[in-house]
Write a structure and sequence with these properties.
The protein is 48% helix and 15% strand. The chain has nine helices and eight strands. The strands form two sheets. It has a five-stranded parallel β-sheet, with helices on both faces. Helix 1 packs across helix 9 (202-214). The longest helix is centred in the last third of the chain and has 15 residues, at 166-180. The model has no long low-confidence stretch (mean pLDDT 97). The structure holds adenosine-5'-diphosphate (2 copies) and zinc ion (ZN). One adenosine-5'-diphosphate is lined by residues 9-10, 13-14, 31-32, 35, 52-53, 56-59, 64, 85-86, 88, 92, 172.
Amino acid sequence: MRLILLGPPGAGKGTQAQRIVEKYGIPQLSTGDMLRAAVQAGTEVGKRAKAVMDAGKLVSDDIVIAIVSERIDQPDCENGFILDGFPRTLVQADATEAMLKGKGLELSKVVEIQVDDKILADRVSGRYTCANCGAGYHDTNVKPKVEGVCDRCGSTHFKRRPDDNRETVVTRLGAYYKETSPLIGYYYAKGKLQSVDGMADIDHLTGEIEGILSKL
Ligand code: ADP
Ligand code: ADP
Ligand code: ZN
């Protein structure tokens, strides 16, 4: 199964991707996570990407396409993968198609998570993750069962992203509408698009996505 999760920042792509990983055992390929790892490691790519990411703008197509292209050649992607946050431009979408074609593979589905713009700033600014296992939380929407302790791994260390603030949300949403939203029509025309209501609660949404995947 080769899946793309599409939606604005804070829509719930990462949250749903983690659940698909658990159920189907295929990896989540988040270009945001990969770029943040490059920034952390201080690589050449990380140095070039940091300021762009902090400002809420898009990193260049060349960089992200190269990262994904290398990643999907890894053995754990053999049975499929979930692309989370990629492709984000038409250039990236064409490159994805070429990449898959070159390997004799086809995209299974594009799931677009739809949410009202007005809740995105709350979703993004309240987001935090476990520093140890990456489990996702939210200040009001998704709290750990025991305050300050990760449900999944028991860690007491959490982190927030430097770009997750109300100021960058405006820029990021602008980038989404300008560069990424054209992909909705692009995949609709290919008969690959399925849209789901991202305003629903997390479990309900997972059920809906599983319903779509079970028909593949
Ligand atoms: P979110 O899930 O909130 O949309 P991501 O973690 O996917 O955020 O991305 C964080 C930042 O990393 C983006 O604002 C952008 O600067 C960069 N980035 C991630 N994926 C891409 C991509 N496919 N193309 C260009 N830039 C990207
Ligand atoms: P994305 O990867 O699309 O940027 P995330 O999956 O990181 O979005 O979700 C953004 C924030 O909103 C996280 O803090 C997450 O816990 C929370 N969240 C995700 N889905 C929902 C939902 N359906 N209802 C309420 N909060 C949600
Ligand atoms: Zn954890």
